[in-house]
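Example record for the data management plan.
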Amino acid sequence: MNPNDIYLSFDLDNTLINNHEGIINSFNYAMQQYAKETIPPNYIKRMIGMPLHEMFAKILNDSTDKYVDAFREYYGKIGIYQANLINGTKEKLEELKTIGFHMGLLSSKKHEMVVRIIDILGISKYFELSLGETKEQKKKYDPIVKSVLTKKLPGKKIVVIGDHINDVKVAEMLKCPFIGVLTGTTKKRKLKKGISVPCKILKSVKKLKPKTIYSLLKKG
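Corresponding structural encoding:
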């Protein structure tokens, strides 16, 4: 199997980067602005990977728009600099690129934030395509993602890599293999439960090997 025919679609938060501090601080900044309260960090951690509106909707009976705007205000100025790469991530991306795999990002973050983060962390050179939330794409498993990838990656075999149940939904929408990593808060059991595509769960992206990718594609 030729790695040049394969496109690896990575999630960002909890898959390649640890941005707990930035997200928790941004979330509670927004909460303090309007609800005059804060939320325990562990509760916020469990929601990372969800779109912002969904995160706030889980705890509010109020319109979430102003909270999301406040979150992004803080995050864009301060929170974005509080992220760091998960151990072994950069070395693994370098290895995969050298082998010849095509790679990209698919995130629940705003598109412009995705671009800024990977530039700040020095990993933008590894990705041919970065997709984040836009006016057209509200969720990472929105059907528009499938049409974009089909248009931009003709003939490529896609493998989705992520830590969250929403990444599983992306793989199922694309009908492609899923590689789950346990660097987030979602347990192995939940990532695998009822999944309808070939699946492999790893401890982290650092553990990803080409033979794992090839074996899953053969199953598909």
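Summary line stored alongside the record: DSSP finds ten helices and eight strands in the chain.
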